[in-house]
Amino acid sequence: MSRPLVDTRPLFRPLTRSIVALERQLTPEDWTRPTLAGRWVVRDVATHLLDTALRRLSFHRDRHQPPPPAPVPDDLTALINALNAGWVDASGRLSPRVITDLYASVSSELSDFFESLPIDAPALFPVSWAGDQTDGWLDTGREFTEVWHHGAQIREAVGAGAFPEPAWLRAVLVIAMQGLPHSYRDVPARAGQSVAIIVTGPAGGRWVLRRDDERWRIDEAEEPNPDAQVLMPDETAWRLLFNALSRSHAEPPQIEGELARPLLRARSVIV
């Protein structure tokens, strides 16, 4: 089977509008609430969303070449962390209203840009957590998962609950599953062995992670006789793959078989 092509281009506009609408309702206290994103509070996550939208437009739409940070970090994770921290520190000069108004404008331009891209346009950046794949739809989808999961962090921090549209989470999960073969790259198995991944809930689905002669592959499909199995709700699935799972947040995944255990360490985000 071939890997599915997931079109997230039309989803950016409704998602970012939902985030802006929530930000406009936040109280001053809400902006300082802790989030799942480590030391970041709500305003830090909101300014990070603004930063990544500005970067995508500058680097991708406008082909701007930024100067490298000094000193240049040794690896991709360190580089990303340095870029993120620099922007969040500088954004302390901005008010919540300015942050929200800027994001409303910039995210609208970001939606325009993604809607104008051909689905088979080349990727701007290889997707590192999927083995540096360069499919354009996956690069766009990766950007969508970033917006969605940071928006979910804000919603949880302020008690707003889950996003109202299951189709958004469904797209996030389909994209995130593309990282599992890379996560399993060093897991030994015989050709033909498989792990069934069953995600329940409105955004759920069924996937099979299968070893062939050379590598692991992921397909959305039923697997009647897997060698191992993972069963989890959609809420647990996104939290697991985006490093946001804890006992207080969601049901733990149900694991059957040793081949399923490495999935607990899989991440579809740079950490």
Query: Roughly what is the average pLDDT, rounded to an integer?
Result: 91
Which class of the largest domain in CATH terms? Answer: Mainly Alpha
As an assembly, this protein is single chain
CATH superfamily of the largest domain: dinb family like domain
Percent of residues in β-strands: 5-15%
A few lines on this structure:
The protein is α+β, with helices and mostly antiparallel strands and 271 residues long. It has eight helices and five strands; from the N terminus they run αααααααββββαβ.
Description:
- This protein is α+β, with helices and mostly antiparallel strands and 271 residues long.
- Helices cover 43% and strands 10% of the residues.
- It has helices spanning 12-25, 42-61, 76-90, 96-116, 136-157, 166-177, 180-183, 234-241; strands at residues 194-200, 205-211, 216-220, 228-233, 254-256.
- The chain has a five-stranded mixed sheet.
- α2 (42-61) packs antiparallel against α5.
- The longest helix has 22 residues, at 136-157.
- The two termini are 30 Å apart.
- The model has no long low-confidence stretch (mean pLDDT 91).
Descriptors:
Four Helix Bundle (Hemerythrin (Met), subunit A), alpha+beta, 271 residues, Nonspecific Lipid-transfer Protein, Chain A, 2 domains
Spell out the blueprint of helices and strands:
Blueprint: H1 12-25, H2 42-61, H3 76-90, H4 96-116, H5 136-157, H6 166-177, H7 180-183, E1 194-200, E2 205-211, E3 216-220, E4 228-233, H8 234-241, E5 254-256
Parallel strand pairs: 1-4
Antiparallel strand pairs: 1-2, 2-3, 4-5
Helix pairs in contact: 1-4, 1-5, 2-4, 2-5, 5-6, 6-8
